[in-house]
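Weekly structure sync, notes
Attendees: PL (lead), two postdocs, one rotation student
Agenda item 3: pending single-chain targets
PL asked that the sequence for the first pending target be pasted directly into the notes so everyone works from the same version. It is reproduced below exactly as submitted, 150 residues in total.
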Amino acid sequence: MGEISGFLLWRAGNTWQRKIRKLLKPYGLTPAQYLLLAGVGSLQLDLGAPVTQVSLARHCGTDQMMTSQIIRVLQQANLVRRSKHKGDGRAVIIEITDKGMVAARDAGAEVEAADTAFHAVLGENAESFADALHVLMGEKIRRRVKAAAL
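Predicted structure, written out during the meeting:
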């Protein structure tokens, strides 16, 4: 009997998460907390506009209730601020604090390096692997433009 791809994907994901959890421990962050912290920082910079809790959950691909719970933990750690949206009483605005920006930047450099090292074993297949993951998630493959050699 052949190996079940879903089970292998689950095991590979757990292996990656263990590495990332260990790396984030000194920052006092879990992988989900880091994802949302980095996500709010990224959206805030990209949009230059308020980031709602709903838009953050969509951007990060997380459940809205889980996002709300994690944002409250990040708020208690003074990594983000939550406030009511002025135009929509149901919406919550999330802003990253200076402390949160430093944590996201510092942890992000380490996460990126660890992610690159983890996937380096794929060699020239790394892009195809990423494309396959996008397909599995029902997303379009993001075409990469390679810089011309000077």
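Discussion points:
- The first strand starts at residue 51 and ends at 52.
- Residues 145-150 have pLDDT under 50 and may be disordered.
Action: rotation student to compare against the earlier draft before next sync.
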